[in-house]
Structures are given as C-alpha cells and as structure tokens.
Specification:
Blueprint lengths: L7 H22 L5 H4 L8 H29 L1 H21 L3 H13 L3 H10 L6 H53 L19 H5 L2 H30 L8 H24 L3 H22 L3 H29 L5 H51 L8 E6 L5 H12 L4 E7 L4 E6 L7 H4 L4
Antiparallel strand pairs: 1-3, 2-3
Helix pairs in contact: 1-6, 1-7, 3-4, 3-5, 3-6, 3-9, 3-13, 4-5, 4-6, 4-7, 7-10, 9-12, 9-13, 10-11, 10-12, 11-12, 11-13
C-alpha cells in the first residue's frame, strides 16, 4: 500500500514485457480473419483440417503454459522465455513455407508450444514490488485486447500486401524482436521465486479444481474462446460470399471493433462501480447467444453480418474484461495465481476445440451448423451463470512483511483481521508476503502501511 510511484526500473520492466506479450499475441491473432480463405488452396485441405489449423495452437498452449511457468522457477525466466519465443518463430517459419494444410498444422502446433505467458508474468512479478504489481499486470493485460483489435484490422490489410505466408514470416520476425527486447531492455531480476498471485502452485490444484464457482468461470472462458475461434472458421467465408472482397474485410472489422469497445466500456464500469457484476455477465452471455442465433439465419447478408458481429464483439469485449475480475474475486486469496493458470489453460483449450469443432461442423452442415452449435454452448453457459453466487466486491492487496516464523505469522494474522475492511488474510511463511482481500469502502490504507517491511 506504499504511496510511492513505480520506479523507472519497474516501469521499464512492465512496458518491455508488455511489448513482448504484444508481439506474441499479434502473431497468434493476425491470421484469424484471413486463414480460412487462404487455406482453400492448400494441398490436402478439408474443412475440419482448416479448423484444426486455426485452433491447434490452443492445445499446445494449454498443455505447456503452466509447465513452462514452473520450469522458469528452476532454469530462470529469461532462458525459458527466449526458448519459447524461438519455438514460436520456428513454428511461424514452418507455416510460412508450407504448401499443405498438414504443414501449416505442424507450424501452428509449434507456435503454441512456445507458451511463455506464465513465465512472462512471473518475470514481471520478480521485477516489481508487491504494492505496484497490479499496475504492471494491468499494462501487460491491456496488450491482449489491443493486439486483438490491431490483428482484426491489420490481418486483411497485410494479406493484400504480403499474403498469409508473409504474415507468418512477419510473426516469426515479431517473435525474434520479442527475444531482442527481452535480452536488451528487460532488467534481470536479482532473484526469482514462486509468486502465489501470478503463478500456479502444484499443491493448490486440488483446491482450485474442486471449487464449483471457479469451474463455472473456467467453463465460461472455454466456451467464449471456443465460440470466437469457431466463428473465424466461417465468418471470413461468409463475408466473401456476402460480396466483400477479402482484402477489404478490414473496412468492416475496424468500425465493428471500435463500436464494440465503446459499447462494452459503460457496462464494464457499471459492473464494478455499481456492483452489478452478475446481472451484466448474464446479460452479456445472453447477447452472445442471441448474436449466434441471428447468425444461424442471417449469415448470408452483409448488413446482417455487420450488425450481428457488432453485438457479438460488444459482448465478447465485455466478457473478456469481466471474467478475469471474477476469477480474482472468487479465488482464495493465496491461490489467485493457480486459479488464473487453470483459467488461462481453459481459454486456450477452448480455442482448440472451437477450431476443430467449427471446421468439422462447417464441412457437414455449413455455417448454420457452426453458429447453432455455438448458441447451444452459450445457452449452457448462461444457465451456469444464472446460478452462480454473487461475487464478493473485494480487492486484492499484498504487503511484503518480511521473514516470519509460525508464531509471529499467527500474531500478525490476528492483527490484520482486526482492521476494519480486511476480510481475508493469508501469511506466506515461505515468501514473507501478506495476501489480503480488502473492502476499499471501509479500509484506511494507512492502517496497512505499518506492516510493510
């Protein structure tokens, strides 16, 4: 709860790591709006394999993200991140040179295996003080939304200039640029340790996976990214069939995404400020479902596509912003990193299932089959959301209290619990950190400052 600002070193770490994160996310997102059209000319192509090629990165990302984070605890953050970026660059190069759908699938699989998100978050935690870590994480997290917006517009433009192979070469170059930024601009931490707020802790998996409320959110993010990825198996084709030339698709994506971001923002603010999280989440899922139902019947009209995509991406942006907040509010204060790790893995697994299922359904039933399948899954998610518990509107805080023995930890825990506004406390004996859940409407920050070492 220090009043100090972030140090120049902390700011440099946050901005540099955000840049690395952005280059990698751009590499994953840039082909989404263009690949389905490009793949039609590849050897051995089938609709199912097109979907697999789009989503396969999610499978390897889900499998390796948490292990890469744990490996960085042993081998060091930078070596693991560099290795992941080199894997991503190698996968991009393989996909760029492939003339068959199988070759692209191999490249995309390798792209996903360079799963460095958890290691990047852990490095950010190493380089920032507990009081300022949420700011660094927010800067890094913002890059995901910005990268997605840029990719939706830049993908079709770049396709017209350099083609999809050129985009893959560009993503390889971006990954190498990320490695250069890491080695040249990101400070090297004096020491690394496990951070419960950003990393998965193996002994906490059982607790997190047994929590029904967290599992609802994991299922929700899986469905959200399943629906997104399945949609991009068919939406580029639907836009072309509706009369929009592929290189002009950005002319639709740009206004749709800008309007969607502006439309979601007031509801994000209302959800947090007015404590309307649950009803707005339920409404957002309903809007996603209604958009998919509309696409079942109206996907062959340009203006219908434009309107329904606007509704879909408004709800999508809303859910992308609120779901991590729900995880943070729901997870036990000492298990936030583990809960976020499972949540992120569920997100990537959803991308894989969405690509594979979307391609298969498109081959058998056409676009309507894909959109109908998505609507059914969204209905299931809506039912789970309706019955979820109202979230606690509490913030998280961390204080470095220094080395503790068990006796002093018990005493300090009692002292924390007596402060008005401290609703939950966990003292980490191994890291000397107090993990708190606080009510900012009651708490006086100065009461916590005396505990900081």
């Amino acid at each position: 709860m220090s009043p100090e600002q972030m140090t120049p070193r902390e700011r440099r770490a946050a901005i540099s790591l955000a840049g690395i994160f952005a280059t990698r996310m751009l590499g994953l997102f840039l082909i989404l709006p263009v690949f389905a059209l490009y793949a039609e000319d590849l050897k051995g192509v089938t609709p199912t394999l097109v979907g697999v090629a789009i989503g396969i990165y999610g499978l390897t990302q889900a499998l390796f993200q948490i292990p890469f984070g744990m490996l960085s605890d042993r081998l060091g953050r930078k070596p693991v991140i560099v290795a992941g970026l080199l894997l991503f660059a190698a996968g991009s190069a393989i996909a760029a040179m492939a003339d068959s759908i199988t070759g692209v699938i191999i490249g995309r699989t390798l792209q996903g295996s360079g799963a460095v998100a958890a290691a990047i978050m852990a490095l950010a935690a190493d380089l920032t003080r507990e009081e300022h870590r949420p700011k660094a994480m927010a800067v890094i997290g913002m890059t995901i939304g910005v990268s997605f917006l840029v990719a939706m517009v830049a993908g079709p433009v770049l396709d017209g200039w350099i083609g999809v192979p050129g985009i893959f070469w560009l993503t390889a170059a971006l990954a190498l640029a990320g490695a250069i930024i890491l080695l040249g601009a990101v400070p090297t931490p004096v020491s690394s340790r496990v951070h419960r707020d950003t990393e998965a802790v193996p002994k906490q998996f059982r607790q997190v996976l047994a929590d029904a409320q967290l599992l609802r959110l994991d299922f929700g993010i899986l469905v959200l990214h399943l629906v997104l990825t399945a949609g991009f198996v068919v939406i580029p084709l639907a836009l072309r069939d509706a009369g929009l030339v592929s290189t002009d698709h950005w002319q639709l994506y740009l206004p749709v995404m800008m309007i969607a971001m502006a439309g979601a923002l007031p509801f994000i603010i209302l959800a947090e400020k007015k404590r309307l999280m649950k009803p707005i989440v339920v409404g957002g899922i309903a809007l996603l479902g209604l958009s998919e139902i509309g696409l079942v019947f109206l996907h062959d009209s340009f203006w219908s596509l434009a309107v329904l995509m606007g509704f879909f991406f408004t709800a999508f942006n809303l859910m992308e912003a609120l779901m991590p907040s729900l995880i943070a509010k729901t997870a036990p204060v000492q298990s936030k990193g583990t809960a976020m790790g499972v949540y992120s893995s569920s997100q990537f697994l959803g991308a894989f299932i969405g690509g594979a299922a979307g391609g298969s359904l498109y081959g058998q039933f056409g676009p309507s089959g894909v959109f109908f399948f998505c609507a059914i899954l969204l209905a299931a998610w809506w039912l789970l959301a309706v019955t979820m518990e109202e979230p606690r509107y509490l913030a998280s805080a961390m204080i470095n209290v220094g080395p503790l023995d068990s006796v002093r930890a018990a005493e300090m825990e009692t002292e924390f619990s007596r402060i008005d506004g401290v609703e939950e406390v966990y003292l980490g004996l191994d890291d000397g950190i107090a993990y708190l859940r606080i009510d900012n409407t009651k708490l006086k920050p100065a009461e916590l400052d005396r505990f900081s070492s």
